[in-house]
Structures are given as C-alpha cells and as structure tokens.
Backbone:
C-alpha cells in the first residue's frame, strides 16, 4: 500500500470524503478500494452521509457510495436517507414518467434490466406509434423531451462510475473522428466485423467497456444512434 493511501485510511471518514469529492476523476477511481474498506464508517455517518452531495448533479461519486452502502446494508437508504423507493437522485420528467425502477436497477447493478427499461421509456417518450411498432424511428428523436433524455443519461452515468450513458458514447465517437465503424468495437458492440449478439454476448456488468450501455438498435442503420447522440439536450451536456 502506498504511503498516500495509508494516510487516507488514517483520515477521519468525513475528511476523507471531502478530499475524495475534490479529487480528479482519475484519482477518485484509484481510491475506490479505500472507500470500500471504510464502508462501515460510511454507514456510521447515518443520515448525514449524503449531506455534502447534490441529488440533481450528474456526479458518479454519490452513486458509487450508494451502491457500496446498499450492498452492505440493504435498508440503509430507506431508513436513513428517506428514500422509500431507493431513489436518491432527482429524476425529472416532462411527461410524468417514473424513473424510480431505473434507479433501483442501476443501484443494484442490474444493467441488463436497466437497459430494457431504458429502451421501453425511449419508445414511450418517442410517442404512441413508437410504442406500437416496438422501436423508435430516427425522425422521432427530436420530439423526445430533453428533460427526460437528460434524466436517463444522468442515471446511467451516476451509477456506473461515469462509464455508461449517451454522452459517454458521444465523447468516444468524437474521439474516433465521428466514425461509427470505429465506435462499435470501442464500446464492445462489434468484434472482428461481427455484431455482438444480443443479449447473451453483451457484458452486463461494470467491467464492460466504456460506452457499452445503454444499447441502441443498429439493425436499421446508424441514424437512430446519431439522432440520439446529437439531441440538443445531450449536446449541451457533452
């Protein structure tokens, strides 16, 4: 163990949390094991645990803490944070959709179920015709409320250490010069020119490549994905 990590284990849990929040993303990722080792101290903070975090901010730090706590004490969030449905993050919807099931799936790292829920909600957001046909046309994406798309994106980010989400996919696409043929293998949707078989061949875990989720159907070409990643609500957050 490095001297730095040893000193961080000697810090009070409140001081450690404060320094953890202020650290760079790379440093925070390197400190996750220290946080895991101090989970009982986190639980000991009780209702004050999340007092230094904001539920409407797209930050994966509180999401990771909630996942860690929930694995150790399944009743903590309900009993100490006043979240009967386990939904700590704000999840606004322009049309009144309930995103608490998605929060529970992601909290428990049930990523396949979260992906199916996301696809279902995208169809609802796209309109009655999309629901009836079972998929979204690229031309319908512009009518999806930005508030809801931002909510879906945020929940994926905060419960994946920043690895998953539409804006994550958009940044990777930008890094490969906007070339979708280079994006697919980077995010694990294609290997050696062959599409990854849904659902069994996908990696439904936090160990999946960055941008691996949520999935967007590519059977009708890239226009749906392109429309989603270029939705005005996501461009402003990318």
Residues:
């Amino acid at each position: 163990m490095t001297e730095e990590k040893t000193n961080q284990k000697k810090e009070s849990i409140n001081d450690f949390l404060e320094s953890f929040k202020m650290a760079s993303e790379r440093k925070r990722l390197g400190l996750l094991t220290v946080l895991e080792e101090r989970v009982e101290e986190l639980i000991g903070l009780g209702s004050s645990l999340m007092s230094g975090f904001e539920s409407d901010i797209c930050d994966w730090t509180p999401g990771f803490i909630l996942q860690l706590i929930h694995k150790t004490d399944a009743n903590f969030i309900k009993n100490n944070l006043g979240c009967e449905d386990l939904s700590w993050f704000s999840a606004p919807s322009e049309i009144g959709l309930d995103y608490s099931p998605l929060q529970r799936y992601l909290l428990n790292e049930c990523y396949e179920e979260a992906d199916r829920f996301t696809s279902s909600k995208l169809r609802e957001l796209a309109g009655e015709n999309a629901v009836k046909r079972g998929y979204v046309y690229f031309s319908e994406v512009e009518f999806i409320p930005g508030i809801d798309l931002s909510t879906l994106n945020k929940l994926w980010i905060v419960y994946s250490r920043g690895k998953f989400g539409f804006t994550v996919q958009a940044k990777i696409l930008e890094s490969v010069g906007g070339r979708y043929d280079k994006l697919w293998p980077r995010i694990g949707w294609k290997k050696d020119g062959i599409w990854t078989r849904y659902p069994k061949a996908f990696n439904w875990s936090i160990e999946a490549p960055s941008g691996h989720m949520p999935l967007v159907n590519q059977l009708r070409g890239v226009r749906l994905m392109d429309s989603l990643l270029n939705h005005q609500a996501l461009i402003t957050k990318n």
